[in-house]
Amino acid sequence: MSEASSSILIVSISRDDRRDLFDVLDGGPYETILTARDYDQANALLDHGAEPTVAIVEFTGEGDQAKKLAQRLRERPEQLEGVLGLISGRARGDCYGWGVSVDGIDDWLRSPIDPMEVSYRLSKLGSADSEHAPAVATGSAAAGAAVEGHQILRLLNAVNCLDGDDALNSDALTAMAKHHHFEVFEILRERGGREAEPQLLVQLDKLPLGSSGDSLWNHQAYYDVLAGKTLVLADGAWESVRDVWLSRYRIRALIGLPLLNDDGKAVGALLAGSRQPLADWDGALEVCRNLAERYSLASLVHHYRIDSRFRGLHDSLTKLPNRLLFNDRLHSAIAEAQRNGELFAVLFVDLDRFKTINDSLGHAVGDQILVAVSKRLRASVRASDTVSRYAGDEFTLILRHIVQRDDVLRIAEKITRVLESPLTLSDGAEMQITASIGIAFFPEDSSDADGLIKCADVAMYSAKGMGRNTFRTFVALPEESHQQRLMLESKLRQAERNNELRVYYQPQVDSHSEDIIGMEALVRWEHPELGLISPGFFIPLAEETGLIIPIGEWVLRAACFDTVRWQKDFDIPLRISVNLSALQIKQPNLLEVVKNALADSGLAPETLDLEVTESINIKSIPNLIEVLSELRELGCNISIDDFGTGQSSLDYLKHFPADRIKIDQTFVRNIGIDPTDEAIVRATIDMAHNMHCQVIAEGVEIEDHLRFLRDNHCEEMQGFLFCRPLPAATFENLLTERARLLAGG
Ligand code: C2E
Ligand code: MG
Ligand code: MG
Questions:
Q1: How many CB atoms lie under 10 A from the CB of residue 639?
Q2: CA–CA separation, 286 vs 253, rounded Å?
Q3: Most buried residue among 61, 464, 594, 657 by CB atoms closer than 10 A?
Q4: Which atom of ligand 1 is nearest to the CA of 522?
C-alpha cells in the first residue's frame, strides 16, 4: 500500500463483490483499480501489460483457476505486494477456506465485503511479507526445509480469532509454542451454527496443503477428538490414525485434546503433531493442556462478551436495537450521508393510547402488542434501514438512501396502514392499534443526531395533534426556518462562484451487454461546512429562488465538456443525460443556452439527452411541447424522467415529444415485492414501445430487478447495481478500465 503508483486488481464473479470492493478502494491509495469478472478477463488484463501491486482473487469451484492466476501474478515478485483470496459465502468449506494455505495466496477475505476487513487485510500484506516470505512463495520442498530441524507442532484448534478480542490469540499461541520449540502453523475452529464444520481460521506458518483435490476437512484425528477421544501417541501416529494430513506430513507423535465450551461440550479439537517421536513428552502435553484450557476460558469470556454486548444494545422483549445502538447507527448514518451527499430520514413512531391498553389489559397484552408492532415495522422497511425500540412504546427508524421526500412519505403511509390492520392476541382476541409518526430529514431539518430526533419528536406530536393514526413531517417555526433559508440561499448563491458545485456521473448501461452507453449528470454541492449536499435537498431551494437557472446552465456546460473529452479519449459515442428543471424550460433563451453549450464544447447534439420530469406542470409552461420539439430539432434527445409519478394522461403523453421514457425508481424498487408495480412497469414498457420510445429504468439495485426488466424488454438501465454516481475523475477511471478490458479481449 505504500507505493505511489500502485494498482489493485479485483477478480470476482459476483458483481456485488466487485462493486463493494470498488467502493471501498475508490479514493484510497491505489492509483488504478482494475476489475475483472472472471479469470479470462484477468489474464487478458495481464497479457496487456497490467501490473497490479495487489490482487484480490475470488476462489470458486476447486479453485484451480484462481490458483493459476495467483501463480501468474507471483511471477513478478518485485512489484507484487501480495494476493488475497476472496471466498464468497457459498464457496466456504470447499477445498480451500479461511486461512488455508494455498500457494500464492497470502491471506483471505470473505464476502459479503466488510470495508474494515478489506483495509485490515490489505494493510497486513506489506508487513507480513517479510516474516513469512520464504514459506509463502515456495512449494512444499522449501517449506519443508523451513521447518526441518524443528519439531513440528500442528495445532488445529477451536479459537474464535475472528473478532480479534479473544484471550487466546495467534500471537499468544505462537509465543507459547515457540517457548517449547514447536511451530504452530494452523489453528482450526468450529464453524458456528448447525453446519458445525471445522474451519481454518488462522494460518501462522504457511505450509502448503498440497494438491487441490484434497478435502481439507478430511481429518480423522480431528473428528475422533470431537467425538470425545483424547489422543496421546508418542510415536507411529500417522500409521495408526488414518488421517490425510498426518500421513502427508509424516506426523509421528500426536496429542489431541477436546476443546470444551462453557457447557463442557467438545466444540473443537486441539491437535499437536511432531515429525519426531516426542522427547519432551510432558512439556508438550503441558502446552497442549494449557492451550486447551485457555481456549475454554477464552470461549467463555467471548460468549459472555458477545452475549452481554448484544443484551446491552438490544431490547430484550422485541430484540430490536435499543436507544444506545440507535444513537450509534444515527451517528454513522450522518457521517456516511455527509460523505456521500445522501439524504436520509428519521421517523419517530409512537403508539396511540398505549398506556391505556397496558393499564386496562395488562402488561402481557402490552408486550404482545409491542412484539407484533416491532415485526410489522421491520417488515415495512428495507433490510438496510434501522428500526429500534427507543423507549416504552416509542420506536425510531432510520430510512437511508432517500432520493426524494415523497419516498419517505410513502413509507410512512405504508407503516400507518400496516399497523392499523387488526392483530390477533394469543388468546384469540383481535385488537387494533394505531400509531402517530413524526418525520425529520437529514440535512434539511437538522444535521446532527439530537436535532434530528428532536425534530422527529416534534413532528410526531403534531401528528398526534392531527387526531392520531397519521404522520407529519417536521415544520420549523416560521422565523427559524426563514432565517435558515436565507442563510442557505445566500450560500447557494455563491456556490457556483466559489467553485463548490460538482457534477457526478452515473453510468447507464445496455440491458443485454451491460456495457456502458451513457451517463446521467447529477449535481452535488460541496458545502464548506456541511460537506457534500444532495440535490434532493438544494435543488428545490434553487428552483424556488431561481438559482436553478445559472446552476442548470453550469451543469449542462460542464457535462458537455466532460463528455466530449471522454468521447474523444475513449472513442465511444457516450450519451450524456442532463436534467432540465421546469424553470429552465420557461426561459425564453433555453434554446440559445443549449446551442451554445453544444457549439462551445463541440458535443454532437445526438449525444445530448435532456431529462424532463413527468410531473412538470403543463399549465405553468404552456409552450412546453414547442420548446421540447425545438430542442429535438436541434438534434437533442428528450427523456421523460420519473415516469409514473406524475398525473399525466396517456393521451397527453401521446403528444409529448419524447425519445425515451425513464421508469421511476419507486416502481423498480417494488419489482419482486408488489405485483401492481410490476404490472405498471410492464405496461409502461409496452406503451413506450407503442409510442416508438425507448425505455430506461432507474434505481436498478438488485439482480432480480435486472432480470425482470430485461425479460420485459427494457432496453437500458441505471442504478446502484451497476454503479453509483461517481465524481468525474473516478468515472474516467471506469472508462479507462473498460478500455483496457476491451483491449484485452
Ligand atoms: P433523478 O434525475 O431521477 O436522478 C436519479 C436519482 O436516483 C439520483 O439521485 C441518483 O443518485 C439516484 N439513484 C440512482 N440509482 C439509484 C439506485 O439504484 N437506488 C437509489 N435509491 N437511488 C438511485 P440524486 O443524484 O440525489 O438526484 C436527485 C434528483 O435531483 C434527480 O433525480 C434530479 O431530479 C435532481 N437533480 C440532480 N442533478 C440535477 C441537475 O443538475 N439539475 C436539475 N434540474 N435537477 C437535478
Ligand atoms: Mg434524472
Ligand atoms: Mg428520476
A1: 24
A2: 15
A3: 594
A4: 38
- DSSP for 363-384 reads HHHHHHHHHHHHHHHHHHS-TT
Architecture per CATH, domain 7-124, reads as 3-Layer(aba) Sandwich (3.40)
Beta carbons of 74 and 137 less than 8 angstroms apart: yes
Closest listed residue to residue 101, CA positions, set 162, 184, 5: 184
Q: Which three cell numbers stand for residue 393?
A: 412504546
- Closest C-alpha to ligand 1, atom 5: 698
CA of 662, closest atom in ligand 1:
3
pLDDT tens-place string over residues 353-373: 888 888 888 888 999 999 999
Query: From edge to edge, which strands make up the β-sheet containing 266-274?
Result: 231-233, 253-260, 266-274
Q: Which CATH superfamily is domain 323-475 in?
A: Reverse transcriptase/Diguanylate cyclase domain (3.30.70.270)
Is the Cβ atom of 20 under 6 angstroms away from ligand 1?
Answer: no
Alpha helix (H) residue ranges in 664-727: 665-669, 675-690, 703-711
Cell of 705: 430487478
CATH 3.90.320.10 at 486-744, yes or no = no
State the distance from the centre of ligand 2 to the C-alpha of 192, rounded, in angstroms: 46
pTM (predicted TM-score): 0.53
Is the pLDDT at 303 greater than 90? The verdict is no
Average pLDDT on 444-467 reads 87
The answer to whether 125 touches 81, Cβ cutoff 8 Å, is: yes
DSSP code of residue 727: E
How many whole angstroms from 384 Cα to the centroid of ligand 1? 20
Please state, in angstroms and rounded to a whole number, the distance separating the CA atoms of residues 157 and 147: 20
The lowest-confidence range among 302-316, 332-346, 516-530, 631-645 is 302-316
Beta strands in 275-412 (DSSP E): 343-351, 386-391, 394-402
Ligand nearest to the CA of 535: 1
Every domain of the chain and the residues it spans = 7-124, 139-308, 323-475, 486-744
**CATH homologous superfamily for the domain 139-308:** GAF domain (3.30.450.40)
